[in-house]
Every structure is written in structure tokens, then in C-alpha cells.
Design a protein that fits this description.
66% of the residues lie in helices and 0% in strands. It is built from ten helices and no strands. The chain is elongated, with a radius of gyration of 19 Å. It has two domains: 41 residues, Arc Repressor Mutant, subunit A, CATH 1.10.10; 124 residues, no CATH class. With 185 residues, it is mainly α.
Length: 185
């Protein structure tokens, strides 16, 4: 794992690998510098503090887990989209054991505002994409959405269920799919 760092992305890639292999607690300036084969000062050229490094690494992990798939068919159907999200959550749990729980719990402290902002930024596309999928899904019955029960509110409910599942480490999408079937089809 000792490679020469040539960019911020190289540092983040090494950071993700440290998190994957040794867990969240292994991430610090010294461990990343050692894994990159560079001096501590080299890391500080890209990140002005451990908090900045940890925050950027967390965002990088979230983006890696929930990156947009090449298969755009995933976003043509609500059920396929939900299955994809839950599969990605399970993938993230396997790739980064304990990351979801530790990362989420770490944001309960006030000094983690930047990390929380970055996490929300990494997630931003998920509820937005759910709204788009819900609007495009031709299987949704006419009149399923109303002024009180909007696409945006339902996407928020689905996203909340996803976040709850992340914390419970429950990657079975069947209950959420049943909610979708009963509410929309």
C-alpha cells in the first residue's frame, strides 16, 4: 500500500483503504502519511487538519458507496431503484464494516458540523433521484399523489426508511417495496 501520493484523490483513496482494512479509528494524518509513503507535512499540503482529512475521507466513502450506476435502468422504476439503494447499503457495510454506525454516531457531537454537511451533500442525490424516479415510474397509479401526499414527501419517507435501515444494518428491501406497492400501485 506504500504508493507515492500525487493528488488529493490519491490521499482519499489511501484513506478509504485504511478505513476498509483497519476501521474508522485507524484514520489519522500519521497513518495516512505512512500508508502513502510520504511525510506528514505532505498530507497537510492537502488537508489543514485531521478533522478536514476525516471529513473528506467520509464524504469519499459515501460517494463511493452511492455513486451513480452506469446502468441507468436502475432509475426508471421505483422498485428497481429501492433494490439498488439497499444493495449499495449492504455493499457499503461489507466494504467498510461499522462505518455507517460509527460515522453517524460521530455526528452527534457539535464539532462535527463539517462532516455532517459533507455527508448530507454526498446523500443529496438520493432523495432527489427518488423523486425523479417516482415522477417517471409509469406503473404508479393515477391519483396516487395528492397535495398532502406529494412525490417529495414520499421520497423523504423512503429516504428516512433507508437511513433507519442503515443504522439497524437491515439491508432487506422487501418491507419498503411492500410499502411502495400498497401506496402507489
Amino acid at each position: 500500500m506504500n504508493t507515492v501520493v500525487t493528488s488529493k484523490e490519491d490521499i482519499l483513496k489511501t484513506s478509504r483503504e485504511l478505513i476498509r482494512q483497519q476501521g474508522w479509528s485507524a484514520l489519522n494524518i500519521r497513518s495516512v502519511a505512512a500508508a502513502c509513503g510520504v511525510s506528514v507535512g505532505s498530507i497537510y499540503n492537502y488537508f489543514d487538519s485531521k478533522a478536514a482529512l476525516v471529513s473528506a475521507a467520509a464524504e469519499s466513502v459515501w460517494c463511493g458507496i452511492f455513486h451513480r450506476p452506469k446502468d441507468t435502468g436502475v432509475f426508471q422504476d421505483t422498485q428497481a431503484c429501492i433494490i439498488w439503494i439497499y444493495e449499495r447499503m449492504e455493499y457499503g457495510c461489507r466494504q467498510y464494516p461499522g462505518f455507517f454506525t460509527l460515522h453517524s454516531l460521530g455526528f452527534m457531537q457539535e464539532d462535527k458540523a463539517d462532516g455532517k454537511r459533507r455527508m448530507q451533500q454526498a446523500w443529496k442525490h438520493i432523495p432527489e433521484e427518488l423523486c425523479s424516479v417516482l415522477k417517471r415510474d409509469s406503473r404508479i397509479r393515477a391519483g396516487a399523489f395528492t397535495e398532502q401526499f406529494t412525490v417529495e414527501k414520499f421520497a423523504d419517507v423512503l429516504f428516512s426508511l433507508m437511513l433507519s435501515a442503515l443504522l439497524r444494518q437491515d439491508y432487506d428491501s422487501s418491507a419498503v417495496l411492500e410499502i411502495v406497492r400498497r401506496a402507489l400501485y
